[in-house]
């Protein structure tokens, strides 16, 4: 019988545990603080920021949102990040992407202090993950790792195939699984014979952003399938990259869309912010 891995279930449990941790920190007069910077008027970005703020406040994290117009100069953004870098009430700094073209995204991400980089995009944190050293791990892949552990999916020795090689999902989840002793193969838009490779996967992670990229004939019987994709149809419905109804008949474990990986991503942002506050206390 196929097990559906709901992210909502684990996300609710983790948020409740994090709320307790924030209450414990309050007894030591510490309130984790998250600064979110948004540039421009993009509707989706504004929605994500609102959801992040509400989720943070629900568990007692203080959040500070700074909004800039899309004609913002790079130096102004760097100055604001540096203020947050020095602000002791802020433990996590997040710059909502994408940024307008006059701003160099890499330079901005490198301005955030690695100790406050709760998105895990700073090259120092990317390097730490690559070296299997402690550091901030990007939220979506970290959420996937937590889900696999929660649902008892063994990783060591498995052939993990990752479809998608972005810096925010594909590469870091591959690195996490490699660190956990999986044998990892990356696929992308130039991969030839995708189906031949996905059919070998014991664990298939799909982060492409195109509905129905993975169909039933592309998977091995008994595989574990994690669908990261989000595509909004004209009807307003959101679907993943995997043809869920047909694939679920053949898989042993599968995440749905919605209610799969998505709810874990924001939970991991809260997790990283609380972790940052705890780490900073232990260093005082
Ligand atoms: P990107 O667009 O950055 O990366 C997509 C990747 O898919 C690229 O590596 C691309 O290859 C590869 N790709 C594109 N077409 C194909 C194809 N036909 N076959 C194989 N590989 C292909 O996307 P993201 O990683 O940022 O996001 C992926 C999806 O996950 C999106 O739908 C996004 O909305 C969703 N997402 C969901 C999150 C959540 O919390 N649920 C969080 C983050 C993302 P190449 O490198 O060659 O171009």
Automatic annotation (TrEMBL):
Belongs to the tetrahydrofolate dehydrogenase/cyclohydrolase family. It comes from Allobacillus halotolerans. It catalyses: (6R)-5,10-methylene-5,6,7,8-tetrahydrofolate + NADP(+) = (6R)-5,10-methenyltetrahydrofolate + NADPH; (6R)-5,10-methenyltetrahydrofolate + H2O = (6R)-10-formyltetrahydrofolate + H(+). It comes from the Bacteria. The gene is folD. Its EC number is 1.5.1.5, 3.5.4.9. Pathway: One-carbon metabolism; tetrahydrofolate interconversion. Homodimer. Residues 138-280 form the Tetrahydrofolate dehydrogenase/cyclohydrolase NAD(P)-binding domain. This is Bifunctional protein FolD. GO terms for molecular function: methenyltetrahydrofolate cyclohydrolase activity; methylenetetrahydrofolate dehydrogenase (NADP+) activity.
